[in-house]
Write a structure and sequence with these properties.
It contains three helices and no strands. The chain is an all-alpha fold. The longest helix has 30 residues. Belongs to the MICOS complex subunit Mic10 family. InterPro entries: Mic10 (IPR007512). Its main location: mitochondrion.
Length: 98
């Protein structure tokens, strides 16, 4: 009986449906919020309708780009991060002292 319950549960690492749900939700939210921020910025700073629409498009592109980055890290595991510099316990020699 315990085997039947555990065989139906998929570990979160392999649950593709949950990953897709997360990515779609993330994309829609970031697209909407970034577009609204671009529209507000366009109304605040620009007079021409063309530049206002360009501001909205830029905001939407930023939102979709950041959602794509996060979704690719969700599907492929954590992205490769830059290595932090190693700090040794001994101080570095100063300019004229050796």
């Amino acid at each position: 009986m315990a085997e039947e319950k555990t065989s139906g549960i998929v570990p979160p690492k392999y649950d593709v449906n949950a990953k897709w749900d997360t990515c779609i939700d993330l994309t829609v939210r970031r697209f909407a919020y970034s577009s609204l921020a671009g529209a507000f910025t366009g109304l605040l700073f620009f007079r021409s309708p063309a530049t206002r629409w360009a501001s909205v498009a830029f905001g939407a592109g930023v939102g979709i780009g950041s959602a794509y980055t996060d979704c690719s890290s969700i599907f492929n595991g954590s992205p490769a991060k830059l290595a932090s510099p190693k700090i040794s316990g001994t101080p570095a020699p100063q300019g004229g002292q050796e």
